[in-house]
Amino acid sequence: xxxxxxxxxxxxxxxxxxxxxxxxxxxxxxxxxxxxxxxxxxxxxxxxxxxxxxxxxxxxxxxxxxxxxxxxxxxxxxxxxxxxxxxxxxxxxxxxxxxxxxxxxxxxxxxxxxxxxxxxxxxxxxxx
Amino acid sequence: xxxxxxxxxxxxxxxxxxxxxxxxxxxxxxxxxxxxxxxxxxxxxxxxxxxxxxxxxxxxxxxxxxxxxxxxxxxxxxxxxxxxxxxxxxxxxxxxxxxxxxxxxxxxxxxxxxxxxxxxxxxxxxxxxxxxxxxxxxxxxxxxxxxxxxxxxxxxxxxxxxxxxxxxxxxxxxxxxxxxxxxxxxxxxxxxxxxxxxxxxxxxxxxxxxxxxxxxxxxxxxxxxxxxxxxxxxxxxxxxxxxxxxxxxxxxxxxxxxxxxxxxxxxxxxxxxxxxxxxxxxxxxxxxxxxxxxxxxxxxxxxxxxxxxxxxxxxxxxxxxxxxxxxxxxxxxxxxxxxxxxxxxxxxxxxxxxxxxxxxxxxxxxxxxxxxxxxxxxxxxxxxxxxxxxxxxxxxxxxxxxxxxxxxxxxxxxxxxxxxxxxxxxxxxxxxxxxxxxxxxxxxxxxxxxxxxxxxxxxxxxxxxxxxxxxxxxxxxxxxxxxxxxxxxxxxxxxxxxxxxxxxxxxxxxxxxxxxxxxxxxxxxxxxxxxxx
Lengths: 128, 533
Hints:
Chain A: Keywords: Cell membrane, Membrane, Transmembrane, Transmembrane helix. The complex is a heterodimer. Chain A has helices at residues 3-12, 14-32, 36-57, 80-110, 115-127. Chain A has a single domain (3-60, 74-127), classed as Helix Hairpins (Orthogonal Bundle), CATH 1.10.287.3510. Helices cover 74% and strands 0% of the residues of chain A. By secondary structure, chain B is an all-alpha fold. In chain B, α3 runs antiparallel to α6, α5 runs antiparallel to α6 and α20 (435-449) packs parallel to α22.
């Protein structure tokens, strides 16, 4: 494969590469990090990648903002994915807020927000 | 592409036209032959609990909040009952929300299966709310009681919405309404472990829901539609594309995570064990079932049914076989785990994971008999687990714990509660004359009809495991001596026992005369297998 076809393949689907990169980064952070706040941040990155997947999907070559104009023959970008993602963003904000509220309560109850320390405390309780 | 532009046009035009449109719609509805209320029953099923939720949150006195919440729950049950009667009488109902016709507007589409699920969810919601008064007074600080009822109603709204909606993105929104409220409800449990259980469920639940959104995004990319009936006609042409196959993979994983299909069940045991008793009973009887419903909806309505399940994949494994293997592995592993639990709620939670396996086993068999058995088990197991968790909730009300030690002597001191517990426990095992027998018998027959001897053998073997773990709790309740010097334990109050006995008697009633639910499941199976919507 020549450099041109490789870079062509990368550029033609540039948005998807970015989305996949962010998606995997976010998921990895959620799985790997023991700090509960960092898990929430990872979850946010993961969700944001999906927002970008939708938004970039609505773009049409040469399309303008979907505001109805008197001039005929115009191409508009598809507004529906944008509208869907507005809803998904609201859901994401609610999830983050609830997640952080739970982290606050966990910190109050356990004195730590590190997953391994919390598990150690819980196992200690079970053994007693 | 033309479809995309139509959407844009419809959106732009609609703003100016909507006012006249709704006026026309109202005029139509007012014709004497059709009543306004009757026409809008599908909307009422969602609007009643959704509007009641903020009103309940405003009530400062817990008793007032409870009354309003229970009233909303009963009204919703009546509405969904009306819907089921209509669907059985005159076929599926298609309702355009706000007068916007599909496939661009959001449609509520109610066929036999969704109507049955609506009645099940609303019924369990209503009984949970009736039961909640005494239980919440004991487990939730009075200052938070009204917020608690408000969350219960929101969760009910979300679950009903997932059953009623014919629009895949709308299903996601309802999924998140029910999920977010259930994370908060679980976090209200009385020990600090409720926080970690809720947090873990939040992380895994959000990953599952986001997978679902990726799946429908990929579908939208290929078809330009979000309407289930419309997708069913557009998807077959695209079935060979990688994009649609990836969409199926994302949807399957995301929904299996919410349905707690083994090995994606890790969030469930702690979430059920540490949530307040009412929440555990309500979620155990509804949440995973509704996710299974959505999964069935996608497999059969959107992706055209058994063809998808029997398609040979890599290594000669079909999706149906894979589901069967995972389901059976889940049944065996979770039943074995249940045997070793020392906490009744946790034990029953593991048993729930096992029972989810039976339901999906029915789907994986990819035969009409198997699918009917799976669907009927959704209904039957909801009743059984609801009764069991209500009984454990009554014990927790008295003793403050669901530990085996707290069950000791409960058979003598709480005879009514424990008798209902035994009935539900026998149903869980599958003793003839109870609901559990009906679904296990149908599942067994479906497996034997396909000459899957190993599957049939495993169903029987895991029923024996159920005997072991149910016996473990009954032994503790009836044969262990009453602990000396412990707190004085008497029978649970009537407001807890009445809902419990109502459900326990339903376990026997539908076990003796299963024609109602079985008829609904078989009609639903026929509709699903005919493909399309």
